[in-house]
Amino acid sequence: MDRHTLEELWRRKKSQTIRLMEVADLTRQILLAAEHRDQISVSMLLSMREEPVQRLSDIEASCRGLVESLPEADAIRAAELLNGAPPESPDEIQLYEQVGQYRRLLESTVEMDRRLSIRMGGERSFYKKFRPRAPQS
């Protein structure tokens, strides 16, 4: 895969990470508002979170579109890198690191969202109904 393609994927993943930082910050604020039982702030912050979540989705779609437009071998390698595969060349390191940063931030944001959903929805929470946690041993 050429350096230009790797840089473009990195640029898109970097942009996606910035949007995810916005979502994480808003999720943190919603969680705090929920802990203080401030329903007005919760409602306002939830609606503020919609736009960056949509932008995240748009960027993800653009990454998929770029990968799908590549020759088969490059598309396979790009998909591997975007799924966290280790770099095979120095040119791939920057994208690998960005993908790792995004994944770590995504995991922490999902965990905050899970706590928020369970706090607000209890047994009706999305995470209780559709995503039961694996039994801990």
Q: What does this protein look like?
A:
The protein is built from 5 helices and no strands. By secondary structure, it is an all-alpha fold. The mean pLDDT is 91.
Task: Summarize the topology.
Layout: H1 3-35, H2 39-69, H3 72-82, H4 93-121, H5 126-129
Helix pairs in contact: 1-2, 1-4
Protein traits:
137 residues; mainly alpha; 5 helices
Brief overview, please?
The chain is built from five helices and no strands. By secondary structure, the protein is mostly helical.
| Biggest sheet descriptor | none
The outline comes out as elongated
Please work out how many helical segments DSSP would assign. 5
Q: How many strands? A: 0
